[in-house]
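Deliverable D4.2, example record:
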Amino acid sequence: MSIERIAGLTSWHADWRGLRVAVLGLSMTGFSAADTLAELGADVFVFSESAEEEYERLVPVIGARLELGPLAAVPAALSAFDPEVVIASPGFSPSHPIIRWAQESEVPIWGDVELAWRVRDKVLRADGTPADWVLITGTNGKTTTTQLTAALLVEGGLRAAPCGNIGVPVLDAVRDPGGFDVLAVELSSHQLWYLGQSRPEGELFPYAAVCLNLADDHLVWHGSAQAYRDAKAVVYRNTRIACVYNKADEATRLMVEEAEVVEGARAIGFDLGIPGPSDLGIVEGLVVDRAFLDDRARSALELTTVAALDEAGLAAPHIVQNILAASALARSLGVEPEAIHDALQSFQLDAHRIQVIARFGGITWVDDSKATNPHAAASSLRAYPGAVWVVGGDLKGVDIADLVADVGGTARAAVVIGVERTEVVAAFRRHAPTVPVFEVDAGETDQVMIRVVEIASRIVEGEGTVLLAPAAASFDQFTGYADRGHRFAEAVRNWIDRGSADDAGVPPSAF
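Output generated by the structure prediction step:
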């Protein structure tokens, strides 16, 4: 197939028949790509080290081929297939042998997001155009902001859906027969790296975009902090209307300044301070918009109040920042302030995101298992100063010393878990030597959180907060951050049950 023909594959209705496509990985993302391409008539060959039984069974059903086995080198079947396009699941890093082989062979490499953009016209809006996309990334807060954005848009009367890295593949969203007005697309740095490889015809032109914050993360995957930063910056490329950035995070402002955007796109800032014109922020307890109104130089629109957010359990500083970012995206699409206020009254955070799971006997137990990197954990510790901090896990190549130096000293004590405990303990000895540190040996998974709760409850001695904010990934001891959070909650529940038996007059909060 000629380069010109591949360049012309920018519509669902283009001629995809016979296109040889190698799909790398058979998770949810890989299967959605294979399924889409098979429906389009492409010749699809999936390569994966492993696969869930359901996906393995469905691949031949949709008319694709599958080879399971090691991918540490380029499989002979892949080389013989001679793909015209490679579509990689986000787990394949830039240094992976197959990605390098494709680059050296000058085979176009797409991610699932680029494929989704190319076929976004499968289902059209009433005016005959595809859904607008708003892109959301950042080291932390992506999922919450994506969910918030979708909720605000829906309350504003738009057909909208969260998708992407949030768990619903973008390809599933663009193929939904009901169609949408707007897609709120969460993008990981891995997905953005693949977008950064796009040729001009495959580049996205989002309606609006935001990078919430930037801190070191996924350094092993990207190879360096600069490469990680550059991948995140791709989110602003070709933005048409609004580039939303965090005024409290200089890196995001620089990304916007350096981005190649569509002429007329505006820079919209947000932070927890008093907003300037073209910003969103807080004035005397009011959450306000000074960006999307005619007289923004002299007035502002009230969106909600900090007190109302507190009543809804949304007043933690980093959650308020997420709300400001989502509100900016929604306002760029014309959602009225009243709709934003109403949506926030009923919005609930996901499980394992700074979630109070119980209060019993004077102790508050907080599950922020989703704080899988230092930046996220720092936000949690600032929301709960003086907490007993449960920390540790798979550090993903990130040095935790800066986190401990910055906020570790505010903790009442630290309970260290995970297989990389040595680095964490050393950081406390060096940067927060007055904080008591307790280690939980890396034993059986089902015993880790039982020991954590036993130790933490003795430290608190009847009054205080215990905060699970690991600042690390979970796969060293658990199946994921949700499993880690569930086991923490279960251990707390068992501890409360024992306490209730001893003191039936002190009822636990409901889980």
